[in-house]
């Protein structure tokens, strides 16, 4: 159990042992140019919990996830997944990227997108069988998209597309789910459907880490938070790490008055 929030980049680590953590990051620095986008970040994700990654625009949230996944090569630092190097554990991770980063202009059916989540089981040259299709359909049902299996992905609304990407991640049957702003630009019904699925993953003992931009829903949706503004600002349970002080430290003057009002209600 994590009890104490850790504040600052060099604070002592939390109670989760490194080998037990689904995602443990040490000294991670990532740079696209001269200025680091992520600087010397430590993170210890607690197993079986839902953790929100929070911070202002450009704080390095997406970069942190991409570097953890090996999509971007860091300047320095280590990433361990379930106590082993990430490359050895890649099949245990499902990733749902920020929606805007995916271009669906080419014709692909919804069921084919979900089947992509099964490619490890199917094998690169393996044949898709009825059992694979049945599993893909079950995942679509779980996100409320069972009736859309044969539609073109490009013809769906943003919220519907997001549900399909989540179905693809479900098909992977991963132990660690990494999602980049899964609720951005989706309707209220989709947000509800997605959070219900994430909570059911947690109930199955899986670990969920999501970049989240709506501060007001953090205490309702998440167990733990990780606040970042290039450097780690705070990490721990919502009750201790998600406070007016840590938010001020992460957002500084960028926290609008309206958000502060909203938050003072969320933080009671
Ligand atoms: P966040 O997800 O918190 O909004 P990002 O991780 O996307 O932040 O970006 C962190 C910083 O790195 C920003 O200053 C952004 O402009 C910069 N950045 C992100 N991706 C690239 C890229 N591919 N090339 C150059 N700079 C980038
Ligand atoms: Mg981002």
From TrEMBL:
What SMART domains does the database record attribute to this sequence?
A: AAA
Keyword set, alphabetical order: ATP-binding, Ion transport, Nucleotide-binding, Transport, Zinc, Zinc transport
* CDD domains registered for this protein in UniProt: ABC_Metallic_Cations
InterPro entries noted in UniProt: AAA+_ATPase, ABC_transporter-like_ATP-bd, ABC_transporter-like_CS, Metal_Ion_Import_ABC, P-loop_NTPase
Give the matching PROSITE patterns.
ABC_TRANSPORTER_1, ABC_TRANSPORTER_2
A Pfam family found in this protein is ABC_tran
Q: Which residues form the ABC transporter domain?
A: 23-255
**Molecular function in Gene Ontology:** ATP binding
- Tell me which domain of life the UniProt entry assigns to the organism this sequence originates from: Bacteria
Sequence similarity? Belongs to the ABC transporter superfamily.
Name of the protein: Metal ABC transporter ATP-binding protein
Q: Which organism is it from?
A: Arenibacterium halophilum
């Amino acid at each position: 159990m994590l009890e104490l929030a850790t504040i600052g980049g060099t604070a002592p680590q939390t109670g989760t042992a490194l080998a037990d953590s689904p995602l443990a990051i040490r000294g991670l620095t990532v740079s696209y140019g001269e200025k680091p986008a992520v600087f010397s970040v430590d993170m210890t994700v607690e197993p079986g919990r839902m953790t929100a990654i929070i911070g202002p625009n450009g704080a390095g949230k997406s970069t942190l996830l991409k570097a953890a996944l090996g999509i971007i090569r860091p300047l320095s630092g280590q990433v361990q997944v379930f106590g082993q190097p990430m490359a050895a554990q890649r099949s245990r991770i499902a990733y749902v990227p920020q929606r805007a980063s995916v271009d669906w202009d080419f014709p692909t059916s919804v069921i084919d997108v979900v089947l992509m989540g099964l490619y490890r089981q199917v094998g690169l040259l393996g044949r898709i069988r009825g059992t694979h299709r049945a599993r893909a359909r079950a995942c679509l049902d779980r996100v409320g998209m069972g009736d859309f299996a044969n539609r073109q992905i490009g013809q769906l609304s943003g919220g519907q597309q997001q549900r399909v990407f989540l179905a693809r991640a479900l098909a992977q049957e991963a132990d660690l789910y990494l999602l980049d702003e899964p609720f951005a630009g989706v309707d209220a019904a989709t947000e509800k459907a997605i959070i219900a699925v994430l909570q059911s993953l947690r109930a199955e003992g899986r670990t969920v880490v999501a970049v989240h931009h709506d501060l007001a829903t953090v205490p309702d949706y998440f167990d733990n938070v990780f606040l970042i503004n290039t450097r780690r600002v705070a990490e721990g349970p919502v009750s201790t790490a998600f406070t007016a002080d840590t938010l001020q430290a992460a957002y500084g003057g960028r926290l609008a008055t309206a958000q502060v009002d909203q938050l003072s209600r969320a933080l009671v």
